[in-house]
Specification:
The chain is 47% helix and 17% strand. The chain is α/β, with parallel strands linked by helices. The chain has 2 domains: 7-218 and 412-428, 3-Layer(aba) Sandwich (Rossmann fold); 227-407, Glycogen Phosphorylase B (Rossmann fold, 3-Layer(aba) Sandwich), CATH 3.40.50.2000. The protein has a 7-stranded parallel β-sheet with strand order 3-2-1-4-6-8-9. A hairpin with a 3-residue loop joins strand 12 and strand 13. It is globular. 40% of the residues are buried.
Length: 429
């Protein structure tokens, strides 16, 4: 542990604990910092403060849960009865509030409540971390709003509050809007340390945004959970149990052709004797609820071999026990594949060539088992499952080696944080 005065840490724009991937990342973040710093307080600014009410851990006495900026604005607008029916106006106000984020924070001394609390706690913080998945991204056809909020938040804490800002392993890009790309280039160039989790993001920052300093590539933070999870896979020879994890976002659910093809494939596999568990990984109502998609698929058929399998998010042990007997994971999400790698379950990742998951499958050792979404078919899925079944023993052994190597690589992040913090202390003094 660094022998310093007790420091305050802020986690900016955290998503939700009702998402297993984000829960894994937060648990890993605690594991990363627990032996590194002497901590007095951790401020977590989150889009879903309600999800923390059911979350208890050994850090709980040090944690303060505060709504993220856009959550504060959203709650404020919801309380204005005259705006409830005026969706376009309330959306416009939300967008404008992000543009005027620094000004609103500057004027927070005349306000009460969460905006003022947010400003005060950010000012008290010594280190600002951004942890999460893939928020600084805005491909064509998708909203630029989440990426804009991330960038403006970084601008405020780095340019105005002059804080040390660290982006822990996540995917960045593409940013297909020219103005957003210009903004990202200016703001991210001043971040003290940017860690990306795959080569696609690394190349994007270097070549498209032209950034050259303070960028490193390390695996997803979730691999640190290997220290807490028993990765000995129980054997179920001949059971043929598939765990299917599909992303229940509005964008994914709107792709009905792909959903129908998935549903048809699962029904075909159930007729072949496979037992299929549809596993929700995100329970965030009205935003990203995997249960909606699970029910949509389940209602297509009348078969006992396809069922919804809910996982208690309260502990890593519970997640591990629930997944441990599954033979193969089929997923459009990243963290089920990472959990599978840790536990020893092979995964079939469904992604497009421009998706970071398509490239992360390479360092998981699952490259030849991934399926491109545009070429997905029943026959291709069946052939891939048969290929995994044939390679199973060798593949499970390889997953164990890969997860240990990636754990070691993630642990090396501590060295970079330690050097950065020591340098910052000397510079500030």
């Amino acid at each position: 542990m660094l022998k310093t005065k007790k420091i305050r840490i802020a986690v900016l724009n955290f998503w939700s604990l009702d998402n297993i991937g984000d829960k894994l990342i937060l648990e890993a973040f605690f594991e990363l910092i627990k032996d590194l710093f002497s901590i007095s307080n951790i401020y977590i600014f989150t889009y879903d403060p309600e999800s923390f009410k059911k979350y208890v851990n050994k850090y709980s006495e040090k944690i303060s849960i505060i709504p993220a900026f856009s959550k504060i604005i959203k709650d404020f607008l919801y309380k204005q009865s005259y705006l409830i029916k005026m969706k376009k106006l309330s959306t416009l106000i939300s967008i404008l509030s992000i543009f005027f984020y620094p000004l609103i924070m500057k004027l927070s001394f005349i306000t009460k409540g969460n905006i003022r609390k947010m400003k005060e706690n950010l000012e008290k913080s010594d280190l600002i971390f951004l942890i999460g998945g893939n928020y600084i991204t805005a491909p064509k056809g998708k909203s630029a709003f989440p990426a804009l909020e991330q960038l403006v938040s970084i601008f405020y804490v780095k340019f105005i509050l002059k804080k040390v800002v660290i982006i822990l392993p996540q995917s960045i890009g593409p940013l297909d809007y020219r103005s957003l790309r210009f903004l990202a280039k200016i703001i991210l160039s001043k971040v003290d340390l940017i860690i990306v989790r795959e080569h696609l993001s690394f190349i994007y920052l270097k070549t498209i945004l032209g950034l050259s300093k303070n960028i490193i590539q390390k695996p997803d933070l979730a691999f640190l959970n290997m220290k807490k999870i028993n990765n000995i896979k129980s054997n179920n020879p001949g059971k043929n149990i598939l765990g299917v994890v599909l992303k229940g976002s509005h964008e994914f659910i709107s792709n009905m052709n792909f959903i129908k093809e998935i549903a048809r494939s699962l029904y075909h596999l159930s007729n072949m004797g496979y037992i299929i568990f549809l596993i929700p990984f995100s329970y965030i109502e009205s935003i990203e609820d995997d249960r909606i998609l699970c029910n949509l698929i389940l209602n297509c058929f009348n078969t006992q071999n396809i069922m919804i399998y809910n996982i208690n998010l309260s502990s890593l042990d519970e997640i591990n026990k629930k997944l441990n007997f599954i033979d193969i994971i089929v997923t459009t999400r990243l963290h089920p594949a990472i959990l599978g790698c840790i536990i020893g379950i092979p995964s079939i990742i469904l992604a497009s060539p421009y998706d970071y998951k398509y490239y992360i499958s390479e360092y998981l050792g699952l490259d030849k088992y991934k399926i491109e979404v545009s070429s997905f078919s029943v026959d291709l899925l069946v052939r891939t499952i048969e290929k995994i079944t044939h390679d199973r023993n060798k593949l499970v052994l390889n997953l164990s080696k890969v997860s240990r190597a990636l754990l070691s690589d993630v642990c090396s992040i501590k060295k970079f944080l330690k050097l950065l913090f020591i340098f910052t202390l000397r510079y500030n003094s």
